[in-house]
Amino acid sequence: MKELLVVIAFIPLTFSALLPVINPIGSAVLFLGFVQDTDHATKKKLARKIAFNTVLFLLFILVAGTPILRFFGISLPIVEVAGGFVLATMGWTLLNKSDADGARVERPGSTEDLENKAFYPLTFPLTAGPATVVVTLTLSAHVSRGTFFEIAMAHLGVLAGIGLIGIVVYIAYAYADRTTARLSPSITQGILRIISFILLCIGAQIMWNGIESVAKTLH
Question: Can you give the pTM of this predicted structure?
Fold first, then answer.
């Protein structure tokens, strides 16, 4: 029962931490810049590929992130402190930002070009950018604590959260043209402000957990 609670706890944590930095609403607007001359079926096909690539990309970082940190001699509590600080900073910046960040991208010329660019740049960095890598590394450090079974259950919860992110990315991209047409700029900004505040709180909590772990080693 305790292990199940661990899984359940990490699903919303992962989803809430990744959602603001992936920013499917803002990214969907950029995605439209690539596919605005294609039909709806092509948009859905590309959205499916991008969502799948995003999930695989995040899973690779989740699994390989901690071993890489250990190779360089970086402790998990330090990653939590640094990563939590970065998350909190990003949340604060987004919370006080007047306009959403834009990205200048070069639009491919054909459907075939779009499919060839499904991973780069449509998945990375358009969807899952450097900030997403930082968040996933922080989550990887956060779940790599406790017994082997507890770590496995925590990773399962993160995996489920990443899967939900993939679903959201697909929906946002596949129906980007219809969704953005129905949302006014003020509503979009309001949603982003709420998500940014949640990101700020999550970053502060993860940073605090890391500080507590470092403090225990000093006793």
Answer: 0.74
Q: Which pLDDT tens digit goes with each residue over 42-100?
A: 999 999 999 999 999 999 999 888 788 778 888 778 877 887 888 788 778 878 876 54
Report phi then psi at 203, rounded to 5. -60, -45
Measure the CA–CA gap between 18 and 134, rounded to whole angstroms: 10
Query: Phi first, then psi: what are they for 54, rounded to 5°?
Result: -65, -45
Residue pair 173/26 in contact (Cβ under 8 Å)? The answer is: no
Residue 123: CB partners within 8 Å, gap ≥ 6?
50, 53, 54, 57
Q: How far apart are CA 22 and CA 81, in angstroms?
A: 21
CA distance 29 to 182: 13
Nearest to 138 by CA among 10, 30, 32, 26: 10
Q: How far apart are CA 13 and CA 203, in angstroms?
A: 11
Where are the chain's structural domains?
Answer: 2-217
Contact 132, 87 (CB under 8 A): no
Distances in Å between the alpha carbon of 92 and those of 95, 97, 135, 202, 214? 5, 9, 15, 11, 24
